[in-house]
Amino acid sequence: MDLLINKDAKRFFMQWMLVLLAGAILTQILVYMNTVQLKHEMLKHDYELAGYLNNNYPHLAAELPLVFTADKTKNELEAGKALLETSGYKDSLQMRFIPVVNSVYQTNVIMNFIVSTGMSIFLFIVAFTFLKKHYKKIDRYQKEVYEIMNGSISTRLDDNEEGSLSKLAASINTVTASLHTHIEKEKHNRLFLKETLTNVSHQLKTPLSALAIYNEIMRGEHLDNEVIESFLKKSEGELERMQTLITNLLKLAKLDAGIIELHKSECVLNDLIKQATASFETRLIYEQKNFEMRTDGVVSYWCDKEWLLEAVSNLIKNAVEHTTARNCIEVHLEETPLMVKIAVYDDGEGIHPDDLNHVFKPFYRSRFSQDKQGTGIGLTLAKTIIEMHGGFISVESAIGKGTRFTIHLPKLTKL
């Protein structure tokens, strides 16, 4: 039986059985003592009865021993019963009126109470001691597991004893050692990824900068050729798009790799939204689009300003890219006791219902908007940044009526 392999359980059952065995032996001793007492009381009662008869009926003295020692017949039993019942001496008579029986009963009650109480106390002590030690060890395991998770102690539970709990500790040690190995490997992978991304960034930026310079040189030649001018303009647009794509890819890769740490501080979100909008002012004017910001007052929030600015800017950029002339873009800033909400509205083309569940996937391009420019990772980047702040983004849209992206930031914690 597996339970008996457990050293603690085996000790517990042995102690329990010893207490029960001691109780059984003590019970037998009490039975013997009660029997001896009953014999003593019966003899005492017979001595008293013999003395009474001898004093009052001396002529029966020679026959009195036979009264108590001779075998009795059934007829004699019935005759004696009939005689004594006339005086109220019968089965229904209460024990307190029969001193011998009453004395034995009271002694038994007291002794049985003492024995049962003592056994119960001993059994309780044995069970309490076992469970206290058992759960104390479990509580220690739990505390040490939390400390391992927080990195405050080593990756091992200190337990070299036998038993099921010790086996559990060994299993936990195996798991934590494996996790520790994977964590260290992941740290090395992230460090390698960070270095790789940095190198790739420099390697890509250099040829892009060179191409941009070549374009500027060619524009400076004053070539009166509309075809060349058109090609140069398209080339500049594609180079800018590639630069944005590379920058966003590097940001997204760093966020996914977990090598970015947020540096949070108190930030006025009204100013952050104005800063995000400022980079699009020229484009809004050129494309004849209206912009409006609505707030109920000054709203401050504990966040990483640079990364939150990136997320808000991507949502505004998305709205700009999916609206046309005379469309309106609005940013609403709202504060509640539990949440801070930043909602970016537009009354543009809207998002097709088939695309709503996919808009945050990287590089996702809807079949309904293949003519739109974009890298396809702006919304993914915004979603990742907001989730790092402990919040989330929701989206609502209707074809031909517009779209609303809402950032939900919790106010319950300041981490």
Keyword list:
415 residues; 7 strands; 11% strand; 5-stranded mixed β-sheet; alpha+beta; kinase; Heat Shock Protein 90; rod-shaped
Outline the structure in words.
This protein is of the alpha+beta class. It folds into 3 domains: 2-150, no CATH class; 182-254; 261-410, 2-Layer Sandwich (Heat Shock Protein 90), CATH 3.30.565. It has 10 helices and 7 strands. It has helices at residues 7-56, 64-69, 74-85, 99-150, 164-219, 226-257, 269-278, 281-286, 305-321, 378-388, and strands spanning 265-268, 290-295, 300-303, 328-335, 339-346, 392-398, 402-410. The strands form 2 sheets. Strands 2-4-5-7-6 form a 5-stranded mixed sheet, with helices on one face. Helix 1 (7-56) runs antiparallel to helix 4, helix 7 (269-278) packs across helix 9 and helix 9 (305-321) packs antiparallel against helix 10 (378-388). The protein is rod-shaped and about 165 Å long. The mean pLDDT is 79.
Provide a concise account of the structure shown:
With 415 residues, the chain is α+β, with helices and mostly antiparallel strands. The chain contains ten helices and seven strands.
